[in-house]
């Protein structure tokens, strides 16, 4: 199975990160490859290649945390292979998950018309002695612009 050997070798390099693949990374890569072959019934299927690609990208992509967890045994190969079914967010680092959550919240706020930015502080106008909103005049139903008689 030349395809499986190539995938295993590539996964080993991904697990090693910037380092040189070791016996441990080679072993982990072989186990992951075997699990994927068992899952898909062979190494020549498109689904096998897609899952192997997903795992390799997850291990390569600024995710030293996941590589370290796999190398230290905090995450085993079976768990990693099963994470594919959960989608790309399952592989994301904690930092990426926080960014994704913030983006999702910002999009929700924008869709609901909420301002995601904090209100501007008041500033003192030179010469008038009073405070004015730094953002400028307000426009809306509570402003003096509309006459509701």
Task: Give a topology summary.
Layout: H1 2-16, H2 23-40, H3 46-60, H4 64-72, H5 77-82, H6 94-112, E1 122-124, E2 131-133
Antiparallel strand pairs: 1-2
Helix pairs in contact: 1-2, 1-3, 2-3
Describe the structure.
- This is TFIIS central domain-containing protein.
- Residues 92-149 are annotated as: Disordered.
- The chain is mainly alpha-helical and 149 residues long.
- It has one domain.
- Helix content is 55%, strand content 4%.
- The protein is built from six helices and two strands; from the N terminus they run H-H-H-H-H-H-E-E.
- It has a two-stranded antiparallel ribbon with strand order 1-2.
- The model has no long low-confidence stretch (mean pLDDT 75).
Summed over residues and divided by their number, the pLDDT gives a mean of 75
Q: What global shape is seen?
A: elongated
Rg, alpha carbons: 26 Å
Total beta-strand segments: 2
- Strand arrangement across the biggest beta sheet: 1-2
**DSSP helix fraction:** 55-70%
Estimate nothing, just give the exact number of structural domains. Answer: 1
Oligomeric grouping of the chains: single chain
Question: Beta-strand level of the residues, as a percent range?
Answer: under 5%
Q: Total number of helical segments?
A: 6
Helix/strand/pairing class, anyone?
A: mainly alpha
For the sheet with most strands, the description reads: 2 strands, antiparallel
Query: What sequence of helices (H) and strands (E) makes up the elements?
Result: HHHHHHEE
């Amino acid at each position: 199975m030349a395809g499986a050997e190539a995938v295993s070798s590539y996964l080993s390099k991904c697990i090693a990160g910037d380092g040189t693949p070791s016996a441990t990374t080679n072993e982990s890569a072989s186990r992951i490859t075997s699990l994927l072959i068992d899952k898909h019934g062979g190494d020549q299927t498109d689904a096998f290649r897609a899952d192997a690609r997903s795992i390799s990208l997850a291990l390569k992509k600024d995710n030293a945390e996941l590589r370290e967890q796999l190398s230290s045994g905090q995450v085993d190969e079976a768990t990693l292979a099963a994470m594919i079914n959960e989608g790309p967010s399952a592989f994301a680092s904690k930092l990426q998950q926080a960014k994704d959550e913030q983006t999702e919240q910002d999009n929700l706020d924008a869709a609901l018309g909420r301002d995601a930015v904090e209100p501007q502080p008041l500033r003192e106008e030179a010469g008038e002695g009073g405070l004015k909103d730094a953002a400028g005049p307000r426009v809306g139903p509570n402003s003096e612009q509309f006459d509701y008689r």
